[in-house]
Automatic annotation (TrEMBL):
Protein name in the entry: ATP synthase subunit I
Membrane-topology annotation of the record: Multi-pass membrane protein
Primary localization: membrane
Subcellular location per the Swiss-Prot or TrEMBL entry: Cell membrane
Coiled-coil stretches: none
Originating organism: Psychrobacter proteolyticus
Lineage: Bacteria, Pseudomonadati, Pseudomonadota, Gammaproteobacteria, Moraxellales
Annotated TM spans: 21-39, 45-70, 91-108
Keywords, sorted A to Z: Cell membrane, Membrane, Transmembrane, Transmembrane helix
Amino acid sequence: MTKPAKRTQKDKIGIYIKRQAWILFILIIIAWLVDTIWLHSELTIAKSAAIGALLSFITQAVFAFFIFWYTGYRARQHIVSQLYRGQMSKWLLTVFGFALIFITVQPLSAPALFIGFMVMQISHSWMLWHIR
């Protein structure tokens, strides 16, 4: 009987990103169902929530990409600088993403946009808590 291979941190993050993609998909389906069945807003609410959730997903994936660019003990200085670059990239993408969304997407529901974004942020925090 062979021993299963130990998962690296990169493997765990890859699994995490796949789970986040499923949460994104489920959130979009739920928003669509709520909008279609209950709110009847011509999918404005569903579209806005989906865009907010997608923005959160993309920024988290970019952050993870920066963080795990380097691995290993010898790369610790690079990892710290990548942490800074990843966080800055995440914030810039978030700010410019929201600006671009508010400028280009019409009609838009700002509360639904922020709720979609926050649900993904909460699920991100919850999953990171479970990874550790």
